[in-house]
Each structure stands twice: as C-alpha cells, then as structure tokens.
C-alpha cells in the first residue's frame, strides 16, 4: 500500500502535491481528491482497522488464499528468486509468501521512507538470514534495484487489490512500470478483488462500526490540520456506492447542508447533497483481470480464487 505515514505534513510542513491535489480537486467539477492522501498516520491506522472488520472480506480472503497456495507458489517461483514487494510489507501476507518460497532476498519498495525502514527492520527480526533491501521510491518512477539482486530472477508481489484503486489507464501504466523495473523473465503475483453482489460490496465499504466512514472523513481532518482548512467535518457524511457501469465501489463525502469553508485561505462553497469523490475501488471479473494484466505487459500463467470467487491471486510472467 502507498503509505504516506510520517510524511512532512505530520511535522507541520504540508506536502506541495497534497496542497495542489486538494485545491485543484475541491475546485473541480465534480469535486475529487485522490485516494492516496488517505494515508497519513491516522489514516494508516484506520486502514489497518478496516482490514480486521467482519464486513471487509478482501484481507482475510487473500491471506487465506496465500496460505493455501503457498506450496504451489514455492514450486512455481524460481529457486533463487528475489521477492520485490510494491508497498512496504503488508504485516501478515509478506511472511506467508516468504515462508512459502524461501527467496534469496526481499526488496520492499515504498514511497514513505520512514515507514519502509520500520517495516523492513521488523521483518528482518523474523527472517534473520534473509537480506532485506528496502528501496524508497514512487512506483511510477522506477529507480535501480539494489546491486545485490541484479543477477537474480524477480518475483514482484502486489497484494491487497491496490491496483483496483487506479483507473484502468493508470493501472496499465503501473503494470508496465513494474515490468520494466523487474526485467526480463520476471514474475508478478498480484491480488485482485472480484466483481460480486453489491450486498457484499457495500457493507465492506460502509461498515456497521463506522470505521470506513472515519477513514474517509479523516481526509477532511487532514486537510484542516495540514492546509489550515476550516471544513466543518461534522457536516459531511460518508457514502459508498456501487457504480455498475465502471464496476467499482466509489467513496464520497457528501455535504449534509449548504456550507462554506476555506483551505489555505481559498474559499469554497458546497450545496447540501453535493459530494467530494475520494476513492474508486475497481473490481474485476476473470476476463477483465486477465485483459488488464496483458495490457500491462504481463501474461497470466496461474490464478487462484477462494470457494466463493470473491478474490483472486494471479501469477503472471513478463
Ligand atoms: C487499499 N485499497 C485496496 C482498499 C480498497 O479496498 O480499495 C482501500 C479501502 N478503502 C476503503 N476501504 C478500504
């Protein structure tokens, strides 16, 4: 996951990209702010809490799948492969993969350096003989991988259906960047959430305890905190809707009354019922998933789903 934890904003310096995305997004029609800005420290904690919710099936379904297919993965991955994870190590999934395939090195890549180094240190404790080589980088701007893994075959790992948070155009660009990064002969293990009934999807993004609502609303708190905003957070309501044409869950923050506020001194007015679009979470059927991967330069060679066909793990080769 692209965690923004411990960024400069936490210390009083707003990220200029955050500032630009918020000011442009609030002025746009329809209003929209990219989901990557959810993940300040509080947002990351709330996301962790979401992954434990009874309604949020993706994390536990993917984790169970990984445990189940571990032995097959072990047989499919090159014996001396280096695992390159996009995101700095999902707390429970990474060790399952590492135990299954016994890689010769583990390279977590994340944009948030401090979070990255922290999770790398934690992981090293559990895998004392494994070289853990963190790389601080933006997924879309590949930097060279560590010298130590240059001659080794790579297995990319991109769990969590994070690819679903991107529009297809950006998802394809990301998959291509990963392919260039990992090089000839690489493989990619990617988690993709499946299209399913809105009766399952909506509660997963609008849970009874209101954790997802707090996660969504925290974006407004973050704007107030880091960009001197005066947004009346209580006047907004979390909304999760299924958009069947785009096969995605959309999260919005809906104004409950007419309101005015400022962000860094810039005035904004919203009418009751108007909303800010904060996230897309695309879901893929089997054909859509395979087509997306192929468009990104990857050939699917194996896939596994749970008995309810809610979530898929796809293994591809470059
Ligand atoms: C990180 N990402 C895959 C989550 C998802 O399911 O789209 C983010 C999330 N948003 C609300 N709940 C979880």
Structural commentary:
The chain is α/β, with parallel strands linked by helices and 318 residues long. It contains nine helices and 13 strands. Strands 4-3-2-5-6-13-12 form a seven-stranded mixed sheet, sandwiched between helices. The protein has a four-stranded mixed sheet with strand order 1-11-8-7. A two-stranded antiparallel sheet has the order 9-10. Helix 2 packs antiparallel against helix 8 and helix 3 runs parallel beside helix 4. It binds N,N-dimethyl-L-histidine.
Salient structural properties:
single chain; about 325 residues; alpha/beta; seven-stranded mixed sheet; four-stranded mixed sheet; 9 helices; globular; disordered N terminus; binds N,N-dimethyl-L-histidine; EgtD_Methyltrsf_superfamily
Q: How would you sum up the global shape?
A: globular
Average pLDDT, rounded to a whole number, is: 93
Beta-strand fraction estimate: 15-25%
What is the helix/strand order? HEHHEHEHEEHEHHEEEEEHEE
DSSP helix count? Answer: 9
What's the total number of strands?
13
Indicate the radius of gyration in whole angstroms: 20 Å
Classification by helices and strands: alpha/beta
Name the assembly state.
single chain
Q: Strand count, sense and closure of the main sheet?
A: 7 strands, mixed
Distance between the termini: 22 Å
GO molecular function: L-histidine N(alpha)-methyltransferase activity
InterPro entries: EgtD (IPR035094), EgtD_Methyltrsf_superfamily (IPR051128), MeTrfase_dom (IPR019257), MeTrfase_EgtD-like (IPR017804), SAM-dependent_MTases_sf (IPR029063)
Protein name: L-histidine N(Alpha)-methyltransferase
Enzyme class: transferase
């Amino acid at each position: 996951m692209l965690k923004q934890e411990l960024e400069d904003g936490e210390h009083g310096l707003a990220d200029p990209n955050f500032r630009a995305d918020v000011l442009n997004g609030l002025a746009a029609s329809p209003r929209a702010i990219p989901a990557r800005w959810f993940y300040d420290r509080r947002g990351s904690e709330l996301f962790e809490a979401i992954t434990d919710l009874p309604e949020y099936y993706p994390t536990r379904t993917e984790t169970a799948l990984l445990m189940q297919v571990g032995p097959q993965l072990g047989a499919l991955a090159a014996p001396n492969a280096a695992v390159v994870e996009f995101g700095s190590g999902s707390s429970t999934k990474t060790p399952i993969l590492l135990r299954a395939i016994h890689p010769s090195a583990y390279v977590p890549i994340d944009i948030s350096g401090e979070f990255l180094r922290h999770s790398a240190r934690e992981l090293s404790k559990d895998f004392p003989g494994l070289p853990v080589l963190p790389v601080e980088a933006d997924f879309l701007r590949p930097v060279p991988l560590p010298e130590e893994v240059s001659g080794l075959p790579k297995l990319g790992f991109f769990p969590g259906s994070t690819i679903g948070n991107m529009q297809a155009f950006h998802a394809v660009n990301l998959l291509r960047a990963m392919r260039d990064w990992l090089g000839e002969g690489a493989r990619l293990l990617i988690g993709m959430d499946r299209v399913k009934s809105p009766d399952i999807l909506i509660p997963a993004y609008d849970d009874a305890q209101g954790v997802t609502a707090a996660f969504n609303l925290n974006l407004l708190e973050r704007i107030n905190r880091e960009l001197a905003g005066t947004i009346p957070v209580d006047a907004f309501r979390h909304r999760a809707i299924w958009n069947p044409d785009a096969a995605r869950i959309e999260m919005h923050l809906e104004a409950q009354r007419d309101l005015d506020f400022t962000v860094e001194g810039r005035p904004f007015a919203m009418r009751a019922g108007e909303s800010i679009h904060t996230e897309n979470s695309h879901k893929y059927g089997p054909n859509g998933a395979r087509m997306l991967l192929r468009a990104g330069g990857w050939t699917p060679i194996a896939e596994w789903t749970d008995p309810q066909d809610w979530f898929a793990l796809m293994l591809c080769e470059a």
